[in-house]
């Protein structure tokens, strides 16, 4: 049985919240999905991009409740991401207020013991077990590429001046390249979706400590956001936590 909770906060510094999220559980807890998007391109446009992407993603997830049998999860995630890209790109091309806008996206489908994750940009998915925390996704960012080449350590990347420059986003091109992941999960695991507003302020080990400290998904999400706000929260922060 899966439980889930999510929340988003504009943070201490930003006037607007450009993050959006959604999630749901169906089939009596045997099937769940979630998505987090972090918009970019100016205050108004970033907000529009993330909301439109989440709405498009949600529309595709409605197919999971199909009594005739839902589409394969990997294919559905890919379609949802491509559809989100299409609507954001079209809006950016046809609305003068939205030129240049885009958004990250990290989403998942969880069906009993199998987890599928899709991501574009630097919003992340983590798996937390009794043994610790592991990032599932790989950031599409300048600093992640530098770390992969050995030019930066993960610690240096956290404070690098270009840490917010992403190399892939939804809505900036008519086509989008998304990464997909699949793995087997176990009862007691937790899966976290989050925007970079969390991970830029709270370390992976601190995230792990808060989740392993226990509580409901709602209580843990609140603690993660509070910890981010207490650290100064210069960016919007969004978390969606699934407990198995």
Low-confidence stretches: none
Q: Architecture, CATH level 2?
A: 4-Layer Sandwich
Shape: globular
The overall number of domains is 1
The span between the termini is 6 Å
- What level of helicity do the residues show? 25-40%
Major β-sheet, in short?
6 strands, antiparallel
What is the alpha-carbon Rg in Å?
17 Å
Q: Kindly report the CATH topology.
A: Phosphatase 2c, domain 1
E-strand count: 11
Structural class determined from secondary elements: alpha+beta
**What's the CATH C level?**
Alpha Beta
Q: What proportion of the residues form beta strands (DSSP E)?
A: 25-35%
Annotation field: number of helices:
7
Within CATH, the superfamily carries the name: PPM-type phosphatase domain
- Average per-residue pLDDT, rounded, comes to 90
Secondary-structure element string:
EEEHHEEEEEHHEEHHHE
How would you describe this structure to a colleague?
This protein has helices at 43-61, 73-94, 142-149, 154-158, 196-199, 204-212, 217-230, and strands spanning 3-9, 19-26, 31-40, 102-103, 105-111, 114-120, 124-129, 132-135, 179-184, 190-194, 237-243. The protein has 244 residues and is α+β, with helices and mostly antiparallel strands. It has one domain: PPM-type phosphatase domain (Phosphatase 2c, domain 1). Strands 2, 3, 4, 5, 6 and 9 form a six-stranded antiparallel β-sheet that branches. A five-stranded antiparallel β-sheet has the order 1-11-10-7-8. A hairpin with a 4-residue loop joins strand 2 (19-26) and strand 3. The relative contact order is 0.21.
